[in-house]
Amino acid sequence: MKEEQCVQTAEKNTHARNRRIRRAVGWTAAVALLLIIAWILFTHYFRVGEAYQPDCYGSLLEVNGQTYVMRRDGLLLRWQEPDRLEEITNLPAEFALTDGTAIYYAKGKSICRYQVGQFNRPAVWTADKVLTLDYIDANVMLFHKNNCDDFTWVDRKTGQSRLLFADEQNRSISFASANENTALYMMSDNGHDRLIALDLRALQSTCLHEGNLGEAEILNDKVYFTIEKTFADGVGVACEAAELWSVGVDGRDLRQIDLSKTNSPAIQWFALAGPDILIATDDYAQTELNQNQSSETGQTLNTNWQPEKDHHGSIYRYRPQTGTLEKIGRDIGLISSFQATGDFYCYYDLGNGRVAAEPVLLQLGQ
pTM score, two decimals? Predict the structure, then answer.
C-alpha cells in the first residue's frame, strides 16, 4: 500500500514538473516570438525622424559588386535584375557611404558599420559630439562634428587621427569631395568662396580657385567644379546658371569645359560616373540667361517676356579622356540629389503641378 502511494506521489510530482516545464517553454517561446515580431516591425517600418523628401535616394552605393540605394528615411534597397528594388533593412541615418566592402553611417556621436546580411552594427569611431561622415575608403576616413567643427582625418590602419584645420577657420568650411589621395573643401568668407585641395598624405592644402562656386568633385588628379553666375532679368527675378570648369589638384591647367553641344549649358547638377561625368542641364535657367544676356548687350528688354513655367532639361555623359559629349536617358525636370556610379545614376525628380515628385534609379545605357 505504501509503495502504491509512493508511486502515485512520484507520478503527480512528475506531471506537475512537466506542466511547469511546458509553461516555461511556452512563455519563453511567446516572448521570443514577440521579440522577433518587434524586430521585424522595427527593421521594416522604422524611419529617421521627419526626413526632407523621405523617399529621395540619399545615397547610391556599390558594395561587393552589388548596387544599393538608401532613401533619406533610412530604407536600404538592393537593385535586382531585371529592374527591381529589394528592401534590405532600415538604417538610422539619412545618408551612408561605403569603402566597397561595407556600409558606413553616422549615428549620433558614433560612426557605425553595417555588413549586409549581418545583425551586428558596431561603432568604428566614437566622439564627444554628433558626427557627420564625409568620406571613407580602405585606408582613410574623414568626418566632422556638428556645426562644421573639428574636420578630422583618420588612418584606418593605425587608428591615428588628426584635425585638418585650425579651430578659428572651421565654421567657414564645408566638405565637397574626396578620393584616396585628395580631399576638397569649400571655404567661405563674406560670400567669397575658395576651393581647397588637401593632400591626405602630406596634409598640405592648395587653393584651386576663388569666386562664386557651386559643386566640386575630384576625378583622379583633376578637380571639376561649377561657377555660378547671377543675372537680373529686368523684372526682379534672380537667375542663376552654372559653368563647368576643371583644374589640376596642384592648381594648374584651369579651363572651362565646352558644353556648347548641349541644348542648354546651364547646369543643375553633375556627378562622377566611373571615369566619366554626368551633367544634368536646365533649359528653364538657360531661357532666362539668354534673355538677360541680350539685355546686357544693349538690346531693348521685352517687358512682356515671361519665362517658361516648367523646368526641363537633359542628362549628358561627358568623357574627359576624349572630350566627347552624348545625351543619355530620359528628359528631366527640376531635380535634386543627383548621384552616379560606374553603372547606375539616380536623382529625385521634383515634379511640377502636373507630375508628382518621384525618385529615379537608372542604369547607364537606359
Answer: 0.77
